[in-house]
Design a protein that fits this description.
This protein is an alpha+beta fold and 171 residues long. The protein is built from 4 helices and 11 strands. The protein is globular, with a radius of gyration of 15 Å.
Length: 171
């Protein structure tokens, strides 16, 4: 079955990019994607069931905006309590994610890589065709695995609306 393509949804430096995948919306159950942790172990999204989590999706931690976004969520995560996890997902190799976490002393977010399969990117509709990167997006998932908030950042080179994410989390 061909992969669904979405065009004119987001831009990178003003140029439209094509996103692959059906996408996921508020009210949908999260697909159980398998990601790779910094120690190369596999982590399934279903392992976070029972906790609310912010899924912060970025193109690469080695870019300025992704760096800022992940540092900001690392700061916010320290204030959210033990029942809320913050996961940052990119296509970066786990070694690069581990290096970034160490260099920035980021201990409150968990970085996970979708580099092996791109299944999360495709399931969430944020895999950029041809670039093998993920578009910038934020999802909040409740304790039952249902999406309760979605923010697909229209211009990939811009930061998300942090205030809107934090307000949605408090609801």
């Amino acid at each position: 079955m061909p992969v669904l393509e979405q065009t004119s949804v987001v831009t990178m430096k003003g140029n439209p990019v094509t996103l692959l995948g059906k996408g996921i919306n508020v009210g949908d159950q999260v697909a159980d994607a398998t990601l790779v942790a910094n120690d190369l172990s596999e982590v399934k999204l279903s392992s976070f069931k029972g906790k609310k989590y912010i899924l912060s999706i970025v193109p690469s931690l080695d870019t300025p905006i992704c760096d800022l976004q992940t540092k900001r969520f690392n700061q916010e995560a320290a204030k959210l309590g033990s029942n809320v996890k913050v996961l940052t997902v990119s296509m970066d190799l786990p070694f690069a994610q581990k290096r970034w976490c160490g260099a920035t002393n980021s201990q409150n977010v968990q970085t996970l890589s979708d580099h092996r399969t791109g299944h999360l990117g495709e399931a969430f509709g944020v895999l950029i065709k041809g670039a093998r990167l993920l578009a910038r997006a934020i999802f909040i998932v409740d304790e039952k695995g249902k999406v309760i908030y979605k923010q697909l950042v229209k211009e990939i080179t811009q930061e998300p609306d942090y205030a809107a994410v934090l307000q949605a989390l408090k609801k």
